[in-house]
Amino acid sequence: MRLIDCVDTHTGGEPTRVVFSGGPDLGTGTMAERVVRFRQDFDHLRTALIHEPRGCDWVVGALLVPPREPESATGVLFFNNRGYLGMCGHGLIGVVRALAHRGSLVAGKHVFETPAGMVSATLHDDGAISIENVISYRSAKQVLVSLPSGETVLGDIAYGGNWFFLVSSPPLDYATRDVHLARCKEIKQALQQHGVTGDEGAEIDHVELCAPWPGSQGPGSPHSQNFVLCPGGEYDRSPCGTGTSAKLACLAADGHLLPGEIWRQASIVGSLFEGTYRPAENGIRPTITGRAYVTAEIRFVLGEDDPFRHGIVS
Ligand code: PYC
Questions:
Q1: Which of 10, 141, 207, 223 is surrounded by the most beta carbons within 10 Å?
Q2: 88 in ligand 1 pocket by Cβ < 6 Å?
Q3: Is the ipTM of this structure higher than 0.90?
Q4: Residues taking part in catalysis
């Protein structure tokens, strides 16, 4: 029998399952090497934690692993219903909240090691959390893609720790989220069919619809609302940290947002991130600020006799 100790959080409505102990021992090496080991030898623990009956398609897992650098707070590997993520913005905000909840992290700035690179996060005295993400950039502007329906869409390809295709959209509505989801899936299918990729053939596994904020306008109102398709076919309930980073990279490249200027990004459920950036070599260094909340302390039991101890895997 295996016991896995987790803290569940949500960041703007999007859940993160933070694994404190009982997960796989991935040894030493870079975070990217440890992800390879996770995938090769312990993928059954990913499915145990994310698939039914213990998980669901929209939860992101965050395995805490010993860091390489002694001054880092921790290493962290993100995973979901489909596989592994290089970085996850809402997930890192959830990790910081979970560590603070367990008394392992005090207010201030801390460094985290992820497969996408070193990132830092600041836990503010008022509970807000800011992550300074990996260097983000736009690799292609207004790429035309034909959808299976015959319609064409234009989108920017940008990296924010994951690869995104960002498409301007009319106002979004939570009530019609299934329509937005279907549209994103159609766009993703077209990207794959036409071989549209990120740099070095990287799969564009996130599609982001970018729309005007439909609510009241005024000081403090969001500048935009998004709908983000995640790799496993679900949508992000949060404004997506890596997706907001990709959006900031596009805004910066177009000269629509200056360094230090605040961009308020709302999600499809109305939760909010604030983003700013500073210029960096070959892109921008985004800072994303949000809040996360603890929802559960869980000790999962994977019993030897449970036919679904590793989740329902199709
Ligand atoms: O916040 O970066 C993010 C994210 C990626 C996938 C789900 N959330």
A1: 207
A2: yes
A3: yes
A4: 88, 240
